[in-house]
Design a protein that fits this description.
68 residues; two-stranded antiparallel sheet; globular; DNA_brk_join_enz; DNA binding; Tyr recombinase domain-containing protein; Integrase-like_cat_sf; DNA recombination
Length: 68
């Protein structure tokens, strides 16, 4: 994900399931976050490669609830 999103490791590690899944349990089209180091707001499109990887991971980990 990091290489596709151009995020620092701290920002990647701070992501939560609720940042990635909407209330229906679907992967959002864009991530909205504030970079920890610069405090800049970022809107990042989730590309197809990342979406596939996340879908695979969530399926294997049985993650469906965005509040986890």
């Amino acid at each position: 994900m990091g290489i596709n999103f151009a995020l620092r490791i701290n920002d990647l590690l701070s992501l939560k399931v609720k940042d990635i899944l909407n209330k229906k349990g679907e992967i959002v089209e864009y991530l909205h976050l504030r970079e920890q180091k610069t405090k800049k707001e970022k809107k990042i499109k989730i590309n197809s490669a990342v979406k596939e990887a996340l879908e695979y991971y969530f399926k294997k980990a049985n993650v469906t609830d965005p509040d986890n």
